[in-house]
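User: Please predict the structure of the protein below. I'd like the answer in C-alpha cell form so I can feed it into my own downstream comparison script.

Assistant: Understood. Taking the following sequence of 100 residues as input:
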Amino acid sequence: MGNDADVVRLHKDYTGVFQSHDALGQVKNIPFTWYHKLDELDIQLQDDRVLKTILLNKSSTELELSINLAHVEADLIPLIPELKQIKDKEHYEVYFHFVK
C-alpha cells in the first residue's frame, strides 16, 4: 500500500494543492491560490471561497495556522462527523500544524 498521508503544497508562484486520501485510498487534489500578509495566510479555493487563516508560526520546517470552525465546518464534517454536534461554532478555532 502506498503513502496515504494528506499533503499541502504551497508553491512559490502562490498556487498550491491539497492532496487528500479517502478511506479507500483514492487521491483527491484540491488546487488553490494563496497569499500572505502580516499574520494572515489566506487561501482562495476554485469555488472562489477565501479561507482567512491566522498565521501562528512559520519556519523552514513548520507552518501553524488557525481558522474559525464556522468557516471550515462543511469541509471538515465528512472527515469528522461529530462536528455537527458542536453548538456556537463561531466560538471555536481549528488548528493546523504542517511539517515539512
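That's the full C-alpha cell string. Residues 64 and 86 are 23 Å apart (CA to CA).
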